[in-house]
Specification:
By secondary structure, the protein is α/β, with parallel strands linked by helices. It has a single domain, classed as 3-Layer(aba) Sandwich (Rossmann fold). The protein contains eleven helices and nine strands. A nine-stranded mixed beta sheet has the order 1-2-3-5-4-6-7-8-9, sandwiched between helices. Strand 4, helix 3 and strand 5 form a beta-alpha-beta unit. Helix 4 packs across helix 5. It is globular, with a radius of gyration of 19 Å.
Length: 319
């Protein structure tokens, strides 16, 4: 019953966002900037015992000169080209243990897991911006305008990482998939929107969408709590409310969604109080490529049992 109620409520919902008139130009220019970035990278072997895999730290220089660190794991025995997989982690975290990716490497994938700049991993954040730097990264740079937003750089890092993976001699550039949960789910979708050669996406309760709706829902203890923090300490009388939300529109996933060409599997937890279902439908409903939403009615922003088994065949099928 809950599933049907939610579907009926949000079947036509496409978000409360107001797409800026220059939104597409903004991202087209950003991608032109990315075109000027080198696809060169540095591999540093990491000695971890394994009969099946080789492990590396991979470093590249992203936009604004940031040194981005990734994990790169590939099969020891490679014949011809292998499929590639990109992985993105949750908010404030890192790419985890190398061993977490072994199940995919044993299936023949070359896996690239990206540390988001300035979060829990080793990647650098070179963002310089006015305003608060204390309470979150969505609002980092918002007081200087769209070009200074932290997530502009992170979004471009996702496409840069995809291009590097696709450029590797051992990787089949036509068989690259992306997956992640929460922030990682959002960045997986962003990656597919900005690098449209990506073929498949598995996104679990993605973050970074429909900021006006989140604020309207008054969710101050969720991953979006920094929105309320900004008003409380930087704009307590909401004199700059419209400017604030208008700027965040440039990093709102709902506006990038129409660019996605990949096939998408989307896991949604209907008790999610961190990334509310409404904010996810705002994006999902604007994806025109093949897609499926997988529902977990009694679950929140947590481990979703049996999801991995459900999507495994989808990711393994490279046809």
């Amino acid at each position: 019953m809950k599933k049907e109620q939610v579907i009926n409520e949000y079947r036509e919902y496409k978000g409360s966002g107001r797409k800026p008139a220059d939104y597409d130009l903004y991202w087209d220019k950003a991608l032109q900037e990315l075109d000027e970035q080198s696809l060169d990278y540095e591999l540093e072997r990491v000695e971890i015992p394994s009969k099946t895999a080789e492990f590396f730290n991979l470093y590249f220089t992203g936009v604004k000169g940031a040194r981005i660190r990734c994990q790169y794991i590939r099969p020891k025995k490679i014949e011809g080209k292998v499929p590639g997989m990109l992985m993105f982690h949750g908010y404030h975290g890192d790419s985890g243990d190398f061993g977490d990716k072994l199940s995919w490497v044993t299936e023949g994938f070359a896996v690239l897991a990206v540390d988001c700049r300035g979060q829990g991993g080793e990647s650098e954040d070179t963002t310089t911006a006015k305003g608060t730097t204390l309470k979150g990264l969505i609002i980092r740079g918002v007081e200087e305008g769209p070009e200074s937003l932290y997530y502009r750089s992170v979004f471009l890092d996702t496409a840069h990482a995809a291009r590097i993976l696709m450029s590797m001699e051992e990787v089949d550039e036509e068989a690259v998939s992306v997956q992640g949960a929460s922030q990682g789910g959002a960045l997986s979708l962003v990656c597919a929107a900005l690098e449209t050669r990506v073929k498949k996406v598995v996104a679990q309760y993605p973050f970074l969408s429909d900021y006006r709706k989140v604020f309207e829902l008054d969710i101050n203890s969720s991953a979006y709590e920094e929105l309320a923090y900004w008003f409380r300490f930087r704009d307590p009388m909401h004199d700059r409310e419209e400017e604030f939300f208008d700027t965040l529109e440039y990093i709102d996933l709902q506006h990038l969604a129409p660019r996605i060409k990949a096939e998408v599997k989307w896991a949604i937890a209907l008790e999610d109080g961190v990334c509310p279902p409404a904010t996810q439908f705002a994006v999902y409903n604007q994806i025109s490529s093949p897609k499926e939403m997988i529902f977990f009615p009694e679950y929140g922003h947590e481990y979703l049992p049996k999801l991995g088994d459900r999507v495994r065949g989808f990711l393994l099928n490279h046809e």
